[in-house]
Amino acid sequence: MKIQRRTLLKGGLAAAAQYMVSCSKAGQLLNSSEHSLMNFRPVPFSMGSGPMPVISEDYEYEVLVPWGTSLQPAGPQYQHPQTEAAQAQQVGIGHDGMAYFPISDDGKRGLLSLNHEYGRNRHVLGKPEPDTLSDVRTSQYAHGVTVVEVAEYDGHWQRVESQYARRIHGNTKTQFSGPAAMSPDLMNKAGNEYRGTFANCSNGRTPWNTYLTCEENFDLYFAATGEFTPTVKQARYGLNKTGKKYYWERFDPRFDLSNSDYQNEANRFGWVMEIDPFDKNRIPVKRTALGRIKHEGAGHGVSKDGRVVIYMGDDDEFEHIYKFVSAGNYEDMLARGVSPLDEGVLFVARFDEGGTGEWLPLTTDNPALKKDFKDQADILINTRLAATALGATAMDRPEWATVAPNGDVYCSLTKNRDRTVPNAANPQAPNPNGHIIRWHDSDDLVGTTFTWDIFLMASDYFANEESFSCPDSLWADPDGRLFMMTDGDQRDGRCNQLLVADTNTGDVRRLLTGVTGCEVTGITSTPDRRTLFVNIQHPGDGDPELTSFPADFDGKTIPRDSTLVVRRRDGGIVGS
Ligand code: FEO
Ligand code: CA
Ligand code: CA
Fold first, then answer.
1. Of 347, 357, 342, nearest to 379 (Cα)?
2. From CA 18, how far away is CA 69, in angstroms rounded?
3. What ligand has the least distance to the C-alpha of 118?
4. Of 208, 89, 210, nearest to 148 (Cα)?
5. 192 pLDDT band (50/70/90 cuts)?
6. Contact 293, 316 (CB under 8 A)
7. How far apart are CA 103 and CA 114, in angstroms?
8. Residue 282 lies in a domain
């Protein structure tokens, strides 16, 4: 099937049309076949466009840690609109990537480390603009990361008292490490106290049990109160005079692009930050060796010789896919007191015709970078520009990447309405529904060449019962399933959804639909894979007339971003 797909791609549009026909026929046959990795009854397309989630009849869900849940049972209760003091001790909004770190032997008690990507002023503050610094702090505290302890008691999951629970938010003390840490381009005239993380999109986890949070659309939180014309480098990261109307810049000068005392503040965002969920006192570390992009996620693999490999998408139209390979065996590096995320090589992908590709090193000894970049720090702070200088492939918005047990890597390309010229890896122009690309690196993940194919084009499923568009979150499970969650317009106004694909056949089944106006995102499971955690982000985009989720719909109650605990009714493996 792989080879057939590549051959067809080379044949252009006619061949692509032919492929679509054969694919949908194959899908019908597979749906009716006896043997499948997914035996659950799917949510029919006719359902899934309302104020509450709909789940397969073979599954059930319950709600965990909605926005505003106190970190400790005795903490401040949620109320709307939020206050600065309460929000600092509560779960944030915009639930996105997350990871479950078990504490108990049975895996039913653990830490949930959870990203908070996004929270509009209207939703968080109950008004479109902040009036005070306290309002800005409330908004900043609603973003970032939560570490909260959860456990199953009497068959129900809940937040429990914890020595580990903490908030890391838009104003928390942070630090930098790796090759760019001491760069003058990270220094401000105002001083060098590093603070905050926000726009935390997808995530990763390391083999040494820490959490990686990825800063994505950081540019939206910066704006200028005075004159500001972005440099070429700033423009490439989307920085502009108006931002996305959070108005943090009005009361917090760090976010004012026209304030020359904070001239490099925006360079301090767009990183992967490492958090030790088991040590409240450890300051989170931004790992500069992984580059500065609009980081979507950080899916990892480990080579047989123990090098850690991190795959990362940069989520913008025509941006790139990256991987980082640690300099050595991660256990040896940790034993020497060196972070495996501080020493290694960052690469960017070039997908060639014919299903082959190359990882291009973003290093100072690469002749293509010598002239325009003054040092490694310059390359890492301006990773996007360096990647383009190397001829990396411009992709259709790379979102999550996940490594399957056989070493195949899957990456979602959510959509690109602005593409006019197709390339081999992004064959539709425009591409409103997105696709998922799959590659396999040479030399046990660490090689500089790879083979690739397109695992699926969402448009091939568009007319089917399993119709979906805009794949975003991904998780390859150990059995060959690929969990896919969507973020974007679905056919006929249906809600965003969680689907499961069989990576051997391309068969797809819908497990859950979210609520009106939400994104379904973030995925992690207990070690036994009997419990899955997924997120409902920005239900109704905060509009109570669309949904009151997780409360029953009444047209008045403000909806709250929440985690769903998803289980099979018979206690089986999730996705089966
Ligand atoms: Fe935060 Fe690209 O999704
Ligand atoms: Ca995403
Ligand atoms: Ca998205």
1. 347
2. 51
3. 1
4. 89
5. confident
6. no
7. 16
8. yes
Residues in contact with ligand 1 (CB, 6 Å cut-off) = 117, 201, 216, 296, 315, 399, 472
The span from the CA of 108 to the CA of 100, in Å, is 10
Quick check: is 244 in a domain? no
426-439 mean pLDDT: 98
Q: 96 C-alpha to center of ligand 1: Å? A: 9
* Dist. CA 21–CA 188, nearest whole Å: 58
How far apart are the CA of 522 and the centre of ligand 1, in A? 10
Q: Provide the token pair at 524.
A: 């992690």
- DSSP letter at 82 equals -
The answer as to whether 238 is a domain residue is no
Q: The domain that contains 548 carries what CATH number? A: 2.120.10.30
Residue 137 CB-density burial (10 A; 0-12 exposed, 13-18 middle, 19+ buried): buried
In the predicted model, is pLDDT for residue 23 greater than 70?
Answer: no
First to last CA, the chain: 24
Q: Residue 215 forms beta bridges with which residues?
A: 200
From the CA of 315, which ligand is nearest? 1
pLDDT in tens, 32-68: 445 689 999 999 999 999 999 999 999 999 999 999 9
Residue 293 Cα to ligand 1 midpoint, Å, equals 12
- Ligand 1: atom nearest CA of 487 is 3
Indicate the number of domains in the chain.
1
Whose CA is closest to 462, among 438, 424, 425, 488? 488
| 318-331 per-position pLDDT tens digit | 999 999 999 999 99
Picking from 175, 449, 203, the residue whose alpha carbon sits closest to that of residue 339 is 175
Domain limits at 477? 5-28+37-216+270-568
What is the rounded distance in angstroms from the CA atom of residue 70 to the CA atom of residue 89?
A: 6
What is the number of the ligand 1 atom nearest to the C-alpha of 216? 1
Long-range contacts of 303-306 (CB under 8 A, 24+ apart): 303/443, 303/444, 303/445, 303/446, 304/444, 305/329, 305/444, 305/446, 306/330, 306/331, 306/332
| pTM value surpassing 0.90 | yes
Tokens of 322: 């990256």
- Residue 7: is its pLDDT beyond 70? no
Tell which atom from ligand 1 comes closest to the C-alpha of 201: 1
Place of tokens 């503040």: 265
Answer whether residue 241 is part of any domain.
no
User: Hey, how many other C-beta atoms are within 10 angstroms of the C-beta on 478?
Assistant: 9
User: How far is the centre of ligand 2, averaged over its atoms, from the C-alpha of 435 (Å)?
Assistant: 14
Ramachandran class of 292: left when φ > 0, alpha when ψ lies in -120 to 50, beta otherwise = beta
d(C-alpha 288, C-alpha 377), whole Å: 8
